[in-house]
């Protein structure tokens, strides 16, 4: 690939998974559509499609990134999903969550720095 650190190529996978989670949450409060057998809203369906796309991208990225690093970088989606929920859905972040984010971020930094 390029001279960029290999873990940087995992960031699109993280972004797609964050979008998928947010779309599922938003779609959960919407009316299901008949086209989707009355089970899902179009946003929920799009969220599931994003998870599928994220899985395909993850499988491809594993060609270039070790599993131990890939899994650590992928765990950053938990931080970004909660931040997205805070920004877009106005969900609250308390101090315990914020402290957890710092610990997760430090753990990721330690793993990718070696």
Task: Please describe the topology of this protein.
Blueprint (H helix, E strand, L loop, with lengths): L10 H18 L13 H20 L5 H8 L1 H13 L6 H19 L1
Q: What's the SSE pattern?
A: HHHHH
Residue share in helix: 55-70%
Structural class: mainly alpha
Helical stretch tally: 5
Key terms for this structure?
114 residues, mainly alpha
Task: Describe the structure concisely.
The protein is mostly helical.
Structure description:
This protein is mainly α. The protein has five helices and no strands. The chain has helices spanning 11-28, 42-61, 67-74, 76-88, 95-113. It starts with 10 loop residues before the first helix and ends with a helix.
């Amino acid at each position: 690939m390029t001279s960029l650190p290999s873990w940087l190529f995992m960031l699109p996978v993280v972004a797609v998974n964050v979008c998928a989670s947010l779309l599922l949450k938003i779609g959960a409060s919407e009316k299901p559509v008949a086209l989707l057998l009355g089970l899902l809203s179009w946003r929920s369906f799009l969220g599931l499609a994003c998870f599928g796309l994220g899985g395909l991208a993850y499988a491809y990225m594993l060609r270039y990134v070790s599993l131990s690093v890939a899994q650590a970088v992928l765990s950053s989606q938990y931080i970004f999903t909660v931040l997205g929920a805070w920004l877009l859905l106005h969900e609250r972040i308390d101090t315990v969550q914020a402290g957890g984010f710092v610990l997760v971020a430090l753990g990721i930094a330690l793993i990718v720095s070696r």
